[in-house]
Write a structure and sequence with these properties.
Structural class: alpha/beta
Bound molecules: nicotinamide-adenine-dinucleotide, uridine-diphosphate-N-acetylglucosamine
Strand order of the largest sheet: 3-2-1-4-5-6-11
Number of helices: 11
Distance between the termini: 30 Å
CATH architecture of the domain at 2-181 and 233-262 and 300-314: 3-Layer(aba) Sandwich
Order of helices and strands: EHEHEHEHHEHEEHEEEHEEHEEHH
CATH topology of the domain at 2-181 and 233-262 and 300-314: Rossmann fold
Length: 337
């Protein structure tokens, strides 16, 4: 039996596919390539050491999904497919609700009909909203401040209701903190189109001279150096968390929300320093106004992941920066995805 990975050609999905293949799992990759390059699939095959079926299908396309479940023997789904840009979600909310919420309902309906009732879902720390009560625990109050966050919270509720309605379902709702870094090989990483919104891809573009300087969004937060603090975790640690969650849905029923973070926060300036050390490149920056909607500090209480999944992040900030730099440099040298 195989694991269907939706959004498997994306940033986190591609790293997870490699770990799944290396762990001996059979996979089926689904992606509509709206935010991924087809070349990624060959890199997953190269790094994973094995071939697998690929479906260029949209999760909104019911018949496309039904065909996959008719042809392939799917045991469980790891569901990454979705739109993820907070700012864009404010501008085109209906696209976000349709893609992330309707798409997931579609997927679950097709799964249920095929008798496949195990799902690992990509939620986000964004469901904790702008609460200041850190570290965030899974039972901390939820609130969302933008349509993207609302889609994640809605899907969590939908999967909880689904599990309550049918005791055969099991769902792991993984709340990621800030994934960064890249595969050690430099063949997979995060390469957003246009000007990046997130800190690490922005720093990487400054490091290779594609952007002039980093704008540090505020240095007057109530944090040790005044800049925003986040819980950055290596994308490979995050990918491994999905393998643990897969084991969990195989052996448990019901819905469980679980944080995936390191439990340690770093400030923007600490990340800049770590990247400079890893790359040997100075990152010019200026202090800019706060970004609307940002909070001062966000980090996980990761104890539930350790207890239920036996998972802990092990890779350091230095390693995250070194791997991100290796990937960026390879892209720059024409090894482009
Ligand atoms: P990504 O954009 O790199 O990957 C998502 C993949 O899904 C892309 O390859 C895209 O082409 C595909 N996709 C989008 N809509 C689709 C559809 N309708 N049908 C089929 N494929 C579709 O993003 P990522 O960073 O790898 O994130 C994966 C998941 O994790 C997303 O659901 C995201 O919301 C969530 N998440 C990401 C972060 C982060 O910081 N990267 C943090 C928290 C949660
Ligand atoms: C963003 C998303 C959030 C998502 C999370 C993980 C927004 C508003 N929020 O949060 O929904 O769950 O990523 O993917 O996009 N920073 C700068 N300059 C920059 C970019 C960022 O100073 O050019 C700062 C930010 O103010 C923040 C930190 O760097 O303090 C991290 O920012 P970012 O990478 O965008 O992640 P989040 O804000 O945590």
């Amino acid at each position: 039996m195989a694991i269907l990975v939706t959004g498997g050609a994306g940033y986190i999905g591609s790293h997870t596919c490699v770990e799944l293949l290396q762990a001996g799992e059979d996979i089926v990759l689904l992606d509509n390539f709206s935010n991924a390059k087809p070349q990624v699939v060959n890199r997953i095959k190269e790094l994973g050491g094995r071939d697998f079926p690929l479906y260029a299908v949209d999760i909104l396309h019911r018949e496309g999904l039904e065909k996959i479940f008719a042809r392939e023997d799917i045991e469980a789904v790891i569901h990454f497919a979705g739109l993820k840009a907070v700012g864009e979600s404010v501008k085109i909310p209906l696209d976000y609700y349709q893609n992330n919420v309707s798409g997931t309902i579609n997927l679950c309906q097709v799964m249920a009909r095929a008798g496949c009732k195990k799902i690992v879902f990509s939620s986000s720390a964004t469901v904790y909203g702008n609460s200041t009560d850190v570290p965030f625990r899974e039972d901390s109050p939820l609130s969302t401040t933008n349509p993207y966050g609302s889609t994640k919270r809605m899907v969590e509720d939908i999967l909880r209701d689904l599990c309550a309605s049918d005791p055969e379902w099991s769902a792991c709702l993984l709340r990621y903190f800030n994934p960064i870094g890249a595969h050690k090989s430099g063949l997979l990483g995060e390469d957003p189109n246009g000007i990046p919104n997130n800190l690490l891809p922005y720093i990487a573009k400054v490091a290779v001279g594609q952007l002039e300087q980093l704008n540090v969004f505020g240095n007057d937060y109530d944090t040790p150096d005044g800049t925003g603090v986040r819980d950055y975790l290596h994308v490979v640690d995050l990918a491994i968390g999905h393998l643990k969650a897969l084991d969990y849905v195989r052996t448990h029923k019901g819905a469980e929300a679980i944080n995936l973070g390191t439990g340690r926060g770093y400030s923007v300036l600490e990340v800049v320093k770590a990247f400079e050390k890893a790359s040997g490149v100075t990152i010019p920056y200026r202090i800019a106004p706060r970004r609307p909607g940002d909070i001062a500090t966000c980090y996980a209480d990761p104890s539930k992941a350790k207890k239920l999944l036996g998972w802990e992040a092990t890779r350091s900030l230095e390693e995250m920066c070194a791997d991100a730099w290796n990937f960026t440099r390879r892209q720059q040298l024409g090894d482009s995805l």
